[in-house]
Specification:
There is one protein chain. The chain is mostly helical. It folds into two domains: 1-38; 41-112. 89% of the residues lie in helices and 0% in strands. Helix 2 packs antiparallel against helix 3 (87-111). It is flat.
């Protein structure tokens, strides 16, 4: 690949994701401020924030386990010396994704 093509594309993607992340933070903060203004019960606000934090933690656990399993799958593919995409490679990747999903579900139940 040519660096004069890859660098602008990566730069564009980084800027785009940065803007999306900042907008998401602003909307979330605005939503919390509105919730505090409308709702007088601090217990309700704390329970909503606790549930939101728990949801983020479970999402991070899921994506971490999936990334780990896919990395292991790519390592297995490399170790076996497979260099072309064939049904075996696809099966290993899909199997790792499925196993990672099941593992993240089990860990989520255990720690959630």
């Amino acid at each position: 690949m040519h660096k004069d093509v890859v660098v602008p594309v990566v730069l564009f993607l980084c800027i785009t994701f940065g803007i999306v992340y900042i907008v998401r933070l602003l909307v979330s903060t605005r939503q919390r401020i509105k919730m505090l203004q409308v709702c007088g019960s601090t217990e309700l606000v704390e329970s909503v924030l606790h549930a939101e934090t728990h949801r983020y933690q479970m999402s991070a656990l899921r994506w971490g386990v999936l990334a780990l399993m896919e990395a292991i799958a790519f390592g297995v593919i490399q170790a076996l010396g497979w260099t072309t995409v064939n049904p075996g490679v696809v099966a290993v990747l899909l199997g790792a994704f499925g196993l990672g999903s099941i593992l993240s579900f089990v860990l989520g139940r255990r720690f959630g």
